[in-house]
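queue> pop job 88
queue> type: inverse folding (structure -> sequence)
queue> payload:
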C-alpha cells in the first residue's frame, strides 16, 4: 500500500470497515492483515469531496469517498462514505450521519462488481442523417415485418449519435491524429498515411497497435508533431463495414462490389436489431445513401425443452458438437426451422431431433440407398432410361406431378423466407409420397429381371426426383444433398448447380385426385384390417367400393388389390345391402328444437328411408314433420351409426365406404401362411447378410396344416425368396409361430 494514499485515509476508519466486512479480513489484537487487500486511488487528492479509493478484498471491490473535509453524497457509484465528522460538526454542516449500503452493478457473465464512470468519447453524428436512415429502413423487407416496423423502426425514430471510440488496446485503431495546437486530421488510406507520416514507412505497415502509435504527422498549422489518439474503434463498426471491407471498396474491385451490393438477404438473431443490423444500415447510409440489404430474416432465441434460456451455469445447455456427432449437422440444421418459424423462440428438445431424423432423414437415405443399390446391380446407365413422361405409368407421372407441386410450394416458401413451411413440406413428401408410397409400391419393378420400359421408367422417375430433392434442400441440408447430387450426377457440387425450376405442365391435378382417393380407400381398408385383427399378409377374397368411384379410380384398381391384399375389387351401386344403419337424435342439438316432441322425432328417425340417410351423410338437409310442424333436419341433428352385415366389415371416411369380405377359405388361409413364410425367410436372409442376388436353400419343420400350405405355394415361395430348394427337414432350428402353429426354418446359401 502506497504511503501517499494511506495518509488520506485514517487507518482507524479503514480498520473499522475491514472489521465490519466479516469473513474477508481478520482483525486481531489491532493487527490488520493487508496481504489480501489492494487499494487504488481514483484521483482528486487534496480536493474536497473527491478523494475516492477502490479497495479489492478477496476479489470483492468497494468504492470509498474519504474526503478530508466533506463528502459529496451525490457522487454515483460509491459504496461507503467516510467523511471527517469533526470538521462537519465544527462547521455546523453535519445534519445526520449514517452508513449507506445499496445494490451494486455486477458483470452478468462473471458476476464480479463493476465500476461505472464517464469518459470522453468520439461520436459519429448520425442524428444528421436520421431521416435518411429511417427512410432506408422502410425499403427493407423484414421477416417478421413487425421487427422492422416496431422494434427497430421505433428505435430509429429516437436515434442518438454513435459513440464510436473505445479505450482499449486491441481493435481497429481510430485513424485520428491530434496536435497540441488543437489541429486534428483523419487519415483515409494507407497511401495518405505514407504521404503525411514524418517517419519513413510504406503501405505495408501494420496498422494495429503498437505499430500505428509510432507514426506521427507534421501539423500543417504549427509545424509540430501530431500524435494519434490512443482509442480504437467500436468493434461493431468493423462488422457494419463488412459489405465494403470484404471487397476493399472503394480502393479496388469497384465493379464487383456494384454487382453484389446491396445484399439480397441477411439473417441474424433478434438481439442484432440494435447491433449489426443497425451498424450496417448507418454505415451504408453514410457511404452509399441506401440500405445495405433488401431482405432481413430475424431469428429468435434458442431455449431449452422447457422454454428456459440455456445457460452453462444452470446446466441446461445442449452440447452442439456431441449432438451433431450423433445425429449429423444436417439433422440439427433441419430440426431448427422444423420446430417453429425461426422468428419465434425455439424450444430445443432432443426428442424432436430424433423425430426429424426418423421422419425425414431415414426415409430419404433409405430411398437413396435402395435406388443406388439396384442401379448398381443392374449396372444402369441413366441416360439410356430416358422414357418420355407421357409414356410412363400413372404412378410415375403422379410422383412427377407431386414433385413439381412440391417444388413450386417450396420455392414460394423460400422466397417468403418461411423455412418452417419448406422443411415440413419436404418431410411430408419424402415420408408419405416418395418412400411410403412410390418406392414401396414399385419395389417389384426394381426387382424385375429384364430392363423393359417399365423398369426404365421407375429408374428415371426416381432419379429425377432424387436429384431435384438434393438441389431443393441444399440450402438447409448441405452435406446429404451434396453426397446425393455428386453420386447421382457425377458433377462437381450441388452448391454450384442452379436452383431447380418447377414445370406447371407436369402437374396433373386429375391424376393426383385419383391417387388421393385410392390412398384414402386403402387407408380405410387398413384400418378395418387392424380393427378386425386381419393380418396384412392374409389375402381376402373381395373388397367392395361405392360404384360412384369406379370411373375416377379406373386403371388404379390394381393398386387397391395389391395394397389391401384382396383378390377382387367390386364396385357396387348400393352399399346398403352390406350394411345396417341406425339413426338416433343428437340430443345436444335437438333437445331445444323438439322439446316434449323429442320421442316422436326419435321414432320417425327409425323409419327414415335409405335415401334420406344418404342425404344426411352427404351433409344435405331433409324435411320432416313432427307434431304437425315441418322441420329442416341437418346432419348435426342426428347420429348415424353403420354396422356391417354378417361376413363383412365396413369402414367410412369423408363419405367414402370400404367393405371387406372377411370370409376365409382354405386356399386363402394357405396363401396367408405362405406369405408369412416368405416374410420370415426374407428376414433370415437379411440377418445372415446375404446379397440380394444370393440363391439359398430353405428347410422347414412344421405341422401338417403349415406343411400343406408350403407345398401348395412352393413355387411362389421359392420365387420370392430366391430359393432353389424348399424341403421338409428335422434339422430346421429357428422357431416361428404362424396362426398359433409352430414352425422351424433354416436357410443356407448355395
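queue> result:
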Amino acid at each position: 500500500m502506497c504511503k501517499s494514499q494511506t495518509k488520506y485515509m485514517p487507518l482507524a476508519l479503514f480498520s473499522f470497515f475491514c472489521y465490519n466486512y466479516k469473513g474477508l479480513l481478520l482483525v486481531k489484537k489491532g493487527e490488520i492483515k493487508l496481504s489480501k487487500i489492494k487499494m487504488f486511488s481514483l484521483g482528486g487528492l487534496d480536493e474536497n469531496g473527491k478523494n475516492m479509493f477502490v479497495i479489492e478484498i478477496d476479489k470483492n471491490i468497494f468504492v470509498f469517498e474519504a474526503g478530508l473535509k466533506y463528502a459529496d453524497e451525490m457522487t454515483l457509484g460509491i459504496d461507503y462514505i467516510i467523511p471527517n465528522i469533526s470538521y462537519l460538526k465544527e462547521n455546523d454542516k453535519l445534519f445526520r450521519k449514517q452508513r449507506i449500503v445499496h445494490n451494486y452493478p455486477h458483470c452478468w457473465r462473471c458476476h464480479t462488481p463493476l465500476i461505472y464512470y464517464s469518459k470522453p468519447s468520439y461520436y459519429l453524428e448520425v442524428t444528421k442523417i436520421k431521416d435518411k436512415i429511417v427512410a432506408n429502413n422502410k425499403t427493407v423487407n423484414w421477416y417478421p415485418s413487425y421487427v422492422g416496423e416496431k422494434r427497430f423502426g421505433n428505435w430509429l425514430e429516437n436515434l442518438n449519435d454513435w459513440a464510436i471510440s473505445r479505450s482499449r488496446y486491441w481493435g481497429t485503431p481510430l485513424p485520428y491524429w491530434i496536435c497540441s495546437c488543437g489541429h486534428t486530421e483523419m487519415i483515409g488510406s494507407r497511401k495518405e498515411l505514407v504521404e503525411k507520416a514524418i517517419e519513413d514507412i510504406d503501405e505495408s505497415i501494420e496498422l494495429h497497435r503498437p505499430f500505428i502509435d509510432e507514426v506521427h504527422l507534421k501539423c500543417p498549422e504549427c509545424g509540430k508533431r501530431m500524435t494519434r489518439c490512443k482509442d480504437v474503434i467500436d468493434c461493431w463498426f468493423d462488422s457494419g463495414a463488412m459489405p465494403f471491407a470484404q471487397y476493399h471498396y472503394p480502393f479496388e474491385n469497384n465493379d464487383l462490389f456494384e454487382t453484389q451490393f446491396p445484399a439480397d438477404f441477411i439473417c441474424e438473431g433478434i438481439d442484432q436489431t440494435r447491433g449489426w443490423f443497425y451498424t450496417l444500415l448507418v454505415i451504408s447510409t453514410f457511404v452509399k445513401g441506401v440500405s445495405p440489404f433488401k431482405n432481413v430474416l430475424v431469428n429468435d432465441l434458442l431455449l431449452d425443452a422447457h422454454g428456459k434460456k440455456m445457460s452453462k451455469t444452470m446446466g441446461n445447455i445442449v452440447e452442439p458438437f456431441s449432438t451433431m456427432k450423433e445425429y449429423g449437422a444436417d439433422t440439427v440444421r433441419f430440426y431448427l426451422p422444423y420446430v417453429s418459424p425461426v422468428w419465434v423462440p425455439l424450444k430445443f428438445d432432443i426428442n424432436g431431433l430424433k423425430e426429424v431424423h426418423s421422419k425425414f432423414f431415414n426415409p430419404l437415405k433409405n430411398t437413396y440407398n435402395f435406388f443406388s443399390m439396384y442401379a448398381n446391380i443392374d449396372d444402369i446407365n441413366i441416360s439410356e432410361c430416358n422414357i418420355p413422361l407421357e409414356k410412363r405409368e400413372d404412378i410415375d407421372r403422379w410422383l412427377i406431378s407431386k414433385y413439381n407441386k412440391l417444388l413450386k410450394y417450396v420455392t414460394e416458401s423460400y422466397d417468403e423466407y418461411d423455412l418452417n413451411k419448406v422443411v415440413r413440406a419436404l418431410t411430408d413428401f419424402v415420408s408419405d409420397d416418395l418412400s411410403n408410397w412410390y418406392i414401396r409400391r414399385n419395389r417389384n419393378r426394381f426387382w424385375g429381371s429384364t430392363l423393359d420400359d417399365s423398369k426404365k421408367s421407375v429408374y428415371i422417375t426416381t432419379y429425377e426426383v432424387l436429384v431435384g430433392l438434393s438441389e431443393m434442400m441444399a440450402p438447409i441440408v448441405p452435406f446429404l444433398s451434396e453426397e446425393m447430387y455428386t453420386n447421382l450426377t457425377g458433377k462437381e457440387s450441388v452448391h454450384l448447380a442452379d436452383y431447380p425450376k418447377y414445370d406447371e405442365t407436369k402437374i396433373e391435378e386429375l391424376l393426383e385426385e385419383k391417387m388421393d382417393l385410392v390412398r384414402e380407400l386403402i387407408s380405410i381398408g387398413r384400418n378395418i384390417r387392424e380393427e378386425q385383427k386381419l393380418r396384412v399378409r392374409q389375402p381376402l377374397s373381395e373388397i367392395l367400393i361405392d360404384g360412384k368411384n369406379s370411373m375416377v379410380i379406373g386403371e388404379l384398381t390394381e393398386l387397391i388389390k395389391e395394397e389391401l391384399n384382396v383378390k377382387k375389387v367390386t364396385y357396387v351401386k348400393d352399399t346398403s345391402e352390406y350394411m345396417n344403419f341406425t339413426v338416433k337424435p343428437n340430443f345436444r342439438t335437438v333437445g331445444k328444437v323438439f322439446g316434449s316432441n323429442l320421442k316422436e322425432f326419435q321414432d320417425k328417425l327409425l323409419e327414415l328411408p335409405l335415401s334420406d340417410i344418404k342425404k344426411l351423410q352427404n351433409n344435405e338437409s331433409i324435411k320432416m314433420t313432427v307434431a304437425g310442424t315441418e322441420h329442416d333436419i341437418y346432419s348435426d341433428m342426428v347420429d348415424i351409426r353403420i354396422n356391417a352385415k354378417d361376413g363383412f366389415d365396413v369402414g367410412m371416411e369423408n363419405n367414402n365406404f370400404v367393405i371387406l369380405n372377411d370370409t376365409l377359405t382354405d386356399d386363402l388361409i394357405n396363401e396367408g401362411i405362405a406369405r408369412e413364410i416368405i416374410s420370415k425367410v426374407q428376414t433370415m436372409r437379411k440377418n445372415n447378410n446375404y446379397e440380394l442376388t444370393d440363391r439359398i436353400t430353405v428347410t422347414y419343420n412344421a405341422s401338417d396344416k403349415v406343411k400343406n400350405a408350403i407345398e401348395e405355394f412352393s413355387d411362389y415361395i421359392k420365387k420370392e425368396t430366391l430359393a432353389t430348394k424348399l424341403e421338409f427337414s428335422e434339422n430346421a432350428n429357428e422357431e416361428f409361430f404362424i396362426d398359433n402353429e409352430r414352425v422351424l426354418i433354416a436357410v443356407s446359401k448355395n
